């Protein structure tokens, strides 16, 4: 009864009719200029996209730093386009899987497989496909790049949203039914809000993969087709062929600024907004300060009114009385005959696919070839495992040290998040220059590149695990003077293992993906190659050999899936059962 | 104070608001056996009255409420709403949830408006009705608050306002006050009864599910007492008091005592409801293994020690004991019945008394207590006896828990089977009869050096 009227209300504070020019303030003017500027740039970029592939606008990239902001914007636009595409995909795919039992039985395992496929392996097929779709236009290449980013985000997002939809609290579901919400209303007012935190979190997390992909896919060589899309990635590509290390560094700085801006302008406000949709009740953990961008927006009249109007329209759309109201049905399982039919259809499809794959394989591959690629896979597996171990040895103690102090942990997590989002492949040229300069063995020294971006997952999760370690248990340890190895073995390590495993799973997945980009590197006309399935795929892509790419991708996917099913799933399930607090 | 509008109430007796006829609800399992949750329940609610469904957890009263709300279709039987068959949620029926079920991303005002917007009521009409409901229920000033900023009591007020704003004829309440602390619950209950008595609520009847005996007597005009497993209406009582009721009044206390007695007696007095339920029982063979409630050994020991101690000296009145030990009905009854099952105490006419064995237990040291408990478990709990003898027979002295779980699931839901095994493991560990390996999901004998 003592709660006061909240100060932080998001209600409109001025009505639209009261708006006049004198109410606009200088912030408004500033933001308006920004908005118009961005709009012009976007329009300009889109015009380029529609141009033919070999027009003068596709003039060779300039390494002049003045061009860099424009390139950065193009790269960012691709990211946005991919994110939008991923969201559209997520909404339809996850909703279908969550609502339809039969679709679910097929879609969810499929998602699991898609998640294991090395994304860069798709490139050969997507480039061929999209260039065929828009022959002779930049648009085709743009789509191929955007689709590559899409594949690095969509599966995660869809799985997250599916899980949220499946975990809508029963009582809210009942309340929605009881008050007669139609299926459309229920979707927008109950189910989507439930999924918002997962959507925001997953799109933040898959940013890292996204930047990596966009940088990689801007310079695509598939067989005889060589495409350069203006952007940071292609800028670095040109810098590599011209052996210009300063341009590489400039690109790194530009990327850093882009990620910083993306985070501050898009994700901080989104994350802060998403906390409202969190379902767990209880006092909000450590009051998060309102992001400056939201504060600024609130102080501008025009833009905040615009925002309110958009929200209002969205609310109106969400309450349209579309779809049917809930009617209970006596839950009868589907008839046995229908179930049989359903599964036999799938069995037939599976057999047909197997047969096709079999004939294809016997026509194009010899068993020696398959064995060879399998051996290459084992080499890369060795690389991944050794790199994950190395990263663990370095980052687990470091993460625990950082996580034990809450202030330190918060700062460190912020930094690590930026590190994780940064596309590690921009750093590859620097390593490659080092390897060439000192004449090092590529088979060993190219290896660390694959963990360069993925290691942060380990650190991030270890810090998270340590900072949520119950303080009382630490005090018990201090009380009994537990220290040294005993402290690690009995107190700290068991407590952080569930988190550590989450990190390691993500890191090893990232490392497999990065293998394609990192096992083969160029500097000028020198090509460094490490043996492994990654370089095999990369080489085949450059040569445009579809059948070899397919073989490489399939075998690499099998490795990743086997790792997931044999090692990571059982381990993390065990850790979840035994070692999770509460 | 006189009963609110006695004439209106009398006159309305004829108007039946909602009627449930021979409702049975079975929990469908993969195997052939269906588990009965509700067994042939019939009830009717007249306009102008508050009916309480009183029973323990597992008696199916919440299921019945959801059937009446149109959220579930019963396996057999039908529901008549204002004379017509009910098919799904009806705009004339609104529900208040135990856990409030507020949407965390909507403000108080938006939460309240939900039902109106679903109906397509917008603009000034919506605002006016929302404001009225908010003012009526005492939420004025909180319109723009987020649910998580509110205390539990205020959250449930939002739940009430949300239900009332659609001006339902019937208000269904699923344990509306059980998630609140005692003072808050009392405050909200009093406010609700007052609004009802003063005819300020836009509803014609209310149905309240509760497991709190006093609460039922405080609010309801009629109380239906449910028996458990499967849920049946065991007794129907009319509450003869006018609002506002005084819980310290001796007639009130007697009425509460009477309900306690009804709920603890082994051979219930014959009433109309009993005859039908008795027949139902005869049709179903008694299962070998019974579901056990979640009762820990420490609670049983604590209860026995409290009973044996001086002011009680081995015998206590249940309502008094509930108050003294700060126990809810859902804790007290399972506790008493578990002690009765083990032959350590007896329930009789709303009283609980220690048996000789129980007194002996309290006076013994730990080793002796373990022995007494082991003896009681082997004798009175068939499941413990079966598990132990299987373990004794096997040379490995281990047995998979899966098998016993399957056997239990013949006569109870998987949830109850899990809970029963959990309870059995807790008791058997205390008595050192056998141990359980959670990782391997198996029982084993401890002496045999298996871990």
UniProtKB/TrEMBL annotation, chain A:
CDD domains xrefs: TM_PBP2
GO biological process: transmembrane transport
Domain ABC transmembrane type-1 per the UniProt entry, residue ranges: 72-266, 381-567
Record has Nucleotide-binding as a keyword: no
Cellular component GO terms, alphabetical: plasma membrane
Keyword Transmembrane part of the UniProt annotation: yes
Protein name per the record: Sulfonate ABC transporter permease
Domain of life: Bacteria
Gene3D superfamilies reported in the protein's UniProt record: MetI-like (1.10.3720.10)
Organism whose genome encodes this protein: Acetobacter senegalensis
Xref: InterPro entries: MetI-like, MetI-like_sf
PROSITE patterns noted in UniProt: ABC_TM1
Pfam families: BPD_transp_1
Annotated TM spans: 29-51, 71-94, 106-131, 143-162, 211-232, 244-262, 336-354, 374-402, 414-436, 456-476, 497-515, 549-568
UniProtKB keywords: Membrane, Transmembrane, Transmembrane helix, Transport
Cellular localization per UniProt: Cell membrane
UniProt membrane topology term: Multi-pass membrane protein
Family classification: Belongs to the binding-protein-dependent transport system permease family.
TrEMBL record, chain B:
ATP-binding as UniProt keyword: yes
Protein's UniProt keywords contain Phosphoprotein: no
Protein name: Nitrate ABC transporter ATP-binding protein
Keyword terms of this UniProt record: ATP-binding, Nucleotide-binding, Transport
ABC transporter domain span: 18-253
InterPro entries attached to this UniProt entry: AAA+_ATPase, AAA-associated_dom_C, ABC_transporter-like_ATP-bd, ABC_transporter-like_CS, ABC_transporter_ATP-bind, P-loop_NTPase
Family the UniProt entry places it in: Belongs to the ABC transporter superfamily.
Molecular-function GO terms, alphabetical: ATP binding; ATP hydrolysis activity
């Amino acid at each position: 009864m003592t709660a006061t009227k909240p100060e932080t209300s998001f209600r409109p504070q001025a009505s639209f009719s009261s708006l006049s020019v004198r109410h606009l303030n200088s912030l408004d003017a500033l933001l308006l200029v920004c908005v118009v500027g961005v709009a012009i740039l976007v329009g300009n970029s889109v015009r380029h996209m529609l141009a033919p592939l070999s027009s003068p606008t596709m003039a060779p990239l300039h390494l002049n730093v003045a061009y860099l902001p424009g390139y950065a914007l193009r790269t960012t636009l691709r990211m946005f386009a991919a994110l939008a595409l991923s969201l559209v995909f997520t909404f339809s795919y996850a909703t279908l899987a969550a609502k339809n039992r039969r679709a679910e039985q097929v879609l969810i395992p499929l998602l699991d497989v898609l998640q294991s496929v090395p994304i860069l392996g798709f490139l050969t097929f997507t480039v061929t496909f999209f260039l065929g779709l828009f022959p002779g236009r930049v648009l085709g290449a743009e789509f191929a790049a955007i689709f590559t980013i899409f594949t690095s985000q969509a599966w995660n997002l869809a799985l997250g949203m599916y899980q949220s939809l499946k975990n809508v609290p029963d009582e809210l579901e009942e309340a929605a039914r009881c008050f007669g919400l139609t299926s459309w209303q229920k979707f927008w007012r109950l189910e989507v809000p439930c999924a918002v935190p997962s959507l925001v979190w997953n799109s933040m997390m898959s940013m890292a993969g996204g930047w990596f992909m966009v940088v990689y896919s801007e310079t695509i060589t598939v067989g005889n087709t060589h495409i350069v899309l203006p952007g940071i990635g292609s800028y670095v590509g040109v810098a590599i062929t011209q052996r210009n290390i300063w341009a590489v560094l400039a690109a790194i700085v530009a990327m850093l600024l882009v990620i910083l801006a993306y985070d501050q302008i898009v994700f901080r406000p989104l994350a802060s907004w998403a906390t409202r949709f969190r379902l767990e009740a209880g006092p909000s953990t450590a009051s998060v300060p309102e992001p400056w961008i939201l504060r600024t927006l609130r102080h501008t009249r025009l833009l905040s009114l615009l925002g309110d109007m958009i929200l209002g329209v969205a609310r109106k759309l969400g309450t349209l009385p579309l779809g049917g109201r809930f009617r209970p049905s006596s839950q009868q399982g589907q008839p046995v005959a229908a179930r049989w039919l359903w599964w036999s259809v799938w069995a037939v499809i599976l057999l047909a696919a197997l047969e096709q794959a079999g004939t294809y394989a016997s026509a194009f591959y010899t068993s020696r070839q398959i064995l060879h690629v399998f051996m290459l896979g084992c080499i890369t597996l060795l690389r991944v495992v050794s790199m994950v171990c190395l990263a663990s040895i370095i980052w687990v103690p470091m993460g625990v040290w950082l996580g034990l102090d809450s202030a330190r942990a918060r700062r460190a997590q912020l930094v690590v998040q930026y590190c994780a989002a940064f596309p590690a492949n921009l750093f590859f040229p620097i390593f490659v220059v080092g390897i060439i300069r000192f004449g090092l063995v590529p088979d060993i020294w190219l290896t660390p590149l694959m963990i360069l971006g993925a290691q942060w997952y380990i650190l991030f999760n270890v810090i998270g695990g340590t900072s949520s370690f119950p303080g009382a248990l630490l005090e018990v340890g201090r009380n009994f003077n537990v220290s040294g190895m005993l402290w690690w073995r009995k107190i700290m390590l068991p407590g952080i293992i569930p988190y550590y495993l989450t990190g390691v799973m993500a890191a090893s997945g990232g490392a497999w993906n990065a293998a394609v980009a990192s096992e083969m590197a160029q500097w000028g006309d020198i090509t460094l190659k490490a043996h492994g399935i990654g370089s095999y795929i990369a080489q085949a892509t450059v040569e445009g050999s579809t059948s070899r790419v397919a073989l490489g991708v399939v075998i690499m996917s099998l490795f990743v899936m086997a790792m997931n099913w044999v090692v990571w799933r059982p381990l993390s399930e065990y850790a979840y059962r035994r070692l999770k607090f509460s | 104070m006189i009963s609110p509008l006695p004439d209106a109430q009398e006159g309305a007796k004829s108007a039946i608001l909602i009627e449930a006829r021979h409702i049975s609800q079975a929990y469908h399992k993969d195997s052939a056996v269906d588990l009965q949750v509700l067994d042939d329940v019939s009830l009717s609610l007249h306009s102008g009255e508050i009916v309480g469904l009183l029973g323990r957890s597992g008696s199916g009263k919440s299921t019945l409420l959801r059937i009446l709300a149109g959220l579930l279709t019963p396996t057999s039987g039908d529901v008549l709403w204002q004379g017509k068959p009910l098919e799904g949620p009806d705009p004339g029926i609104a529900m208040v949830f135990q856990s409030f079920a507020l949407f965390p991303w909507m403000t108080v005002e938006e939460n309240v408006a939900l039902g109106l917007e679903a109906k397509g009521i917008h603009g000034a009409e919506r605002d006016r009705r929302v404001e009225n409901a908010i003012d009526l229920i005492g939420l004025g000033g909180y319109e723009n608050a987020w649910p998580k900023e509110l205390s539990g009591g205020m959250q449930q007020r939002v739940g009430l306002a949300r239900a009332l704003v659609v001006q339902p004829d019937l208000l269904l309440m699923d344990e509306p006050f059980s998630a609140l602390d005692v003072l808050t619950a009392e405050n909200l209950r009093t406010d609700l009864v007052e609004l009802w008595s003063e005819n300020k609520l836009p509803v014609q009847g209310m149905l309240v599910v509760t497991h709190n005996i006093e609460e039922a007597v405080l609010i309801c005009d009629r109380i239906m007492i449910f028996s458990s497993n499967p849920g049946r209406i065991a007794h129907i009582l009319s509450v003869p008091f006018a609002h506002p009721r005084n819980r310290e009044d001796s007639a009130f206390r007697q009425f509460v005592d009477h309900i306690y007695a009804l709920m603890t007696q082994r051979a219930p007095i014959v009433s109309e409801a009993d005859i039908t339920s008795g027949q139902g029982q005869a049709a179903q063979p008694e299962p070998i293994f019974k579901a056990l409630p979640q009762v820990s050994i420490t609670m049983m020991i604590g209860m026995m020690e409290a009973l044996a101690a001086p002011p009680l000296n081995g015998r206590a009145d249940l309502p008094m004991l509930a108050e003294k030990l700060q126990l809810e009905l859902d804790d007290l009854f399972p506790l008493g019945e578990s002690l009765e099952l083990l032959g350590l105490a007896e329930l009789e006419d709303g009283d609980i008394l220690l048996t000789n064995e129980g007194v002996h237990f309290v006076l013994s040291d730990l080793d002796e207590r373990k022995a007494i408990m082991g003896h009681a478990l082997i004798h009175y709990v068939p499941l413990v006896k079966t598990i132990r003898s299987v373990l004794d027979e096997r040379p490995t002295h281990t047995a998979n828990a899966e098998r016993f779980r399957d056997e239990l699931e013949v006569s109870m839901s998987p949830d109850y089977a899990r809970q029963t095994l959990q309870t059995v493991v807790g008791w058997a560990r205390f008595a050192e009869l056998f141990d359980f390996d959670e990782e391997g999901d198996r029982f084993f004998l401890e002496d045999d050096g298996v871990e």
